[in-house]
Amino acid sequence: MQRLTLLSLGSINADFQVRVDEPLGSRETLIAHDLSRLSGGKASNTAYLAARFGHRSCLLGRVGDDELAEQALAPLRQAGVEIDEVGRAAGRSTGVSMIMVPPDAKKHIVLATNANDCWDEAAADAMVAAIEACEPPACLVLDYEIPAWVVRLAIEAAARKGIGSVLDPSFPDRLERDLLPMLQAITPNASEAEALVGHPVDSIAAAARAARELQRAGTPIVCIKLSDGGCVLTSAEETLHIPPGEVEPVDTTGAGDAFTGVFAIALLEGLAPREAAAWGVAAANLAVTGYGSQPAYPERDQVASMAHGLLAKARPVDG
Ligand code: RIB
Prior knowledge:
Elements: E1 5-9, E2 13-20, E3 32-40, H1 42-52, E4 56-64, H2 68-79, E5 86-89, E6 95-101, E7 108-112, H3 121-132, E8 138-143, H4 148-161, E9 164-168, E10 185-186, H5 190-197, H6 204-216, E11 221-225, E12 231-234, E13 239-242, H7 255-268, H8 273-287, H9 300-313, E14 315-316
Helix pairs in contact: 1-2, 1-7, 3-4, 5-6, 7-8, 8-9
Bound molecules: alpha-D-ribofuranose.
């Protein structure tokens, strides 16, 4: 089989994660336990998945020149992710996420973007050169936890190479709408979709409406990740609701990245949008059954098997 490449561009972080036994905000000071120091960030997480799924995985982004860079990069190196194109921002700290996971599994993240926001022209040129040097078949998956001008350069470079781009629009206020027609797919969650379309996305019907609006704005495949773990997909063929799987969530950290990463990988492998979306839902649902992002990510066989069952329950959304 031809080697497929996933290029991941976006945030690369050192995650510091704790569990708390009471709802967040219930006291001024909460007691936490089980501190984990992990590799995190949206680009790191999708890159990790691509390597885990057996593909060439190339990470693009920025870390600092501090010891936290190793916390972010070592597990990726070990998983087989190519990290040679990750730049170092001199005198800056690596991005840090402080993550609290309460009993309801719904994580809260405070992100210090640090080196993720430290791009200069030379760094951007090197990133563009890496995309230009990549031989298709390939897919670029990217997020907005880095400057918008860098995202634009990457999408334009990928388009010149015939490489599809799959965008996680976090942070949605950074999205420049003229880029929408240059994307292969976009994967907002419900609140990001609300920010993009300007109306509430609080039901399956509203998500379908929002997905079609984004599709009319130019992106052919739109997948809105719902807070219950399901999704609404709009493609050239259909608008479909894929329900969540039946799982016991313990930690939602990195579930959205599992969706976007596996969805992009499945599209790259040539799966139809509905199958790719079911793979994304399965990956996200399995990811919430363990603590942390990368340590909780599932194997390919688990994803394929759950996705098969989910697709059987998927229903078209009219309107
Ligand atoms: O989406 C989860 C990721 O977002 C975490 O790994 C954290 O670093 C934040 O960027």
